[in-house]
Amino acid sequence: MLTYEGKESSGTAWDLQLLESWPDTDAKLSVQALVRRQKGSGYSISDPLKKFPEELVKMAQQQIVKGVQAGGVVGNVKPVVAARRMIYKVLLEGTTLPTDWMDHVDVVDATTEKLPRFLCPGCHSPV
Question: Which end of the chain is more exposed for a tag (fewer CB within 10 A), N or C?
Answer without folding.
Answer: N
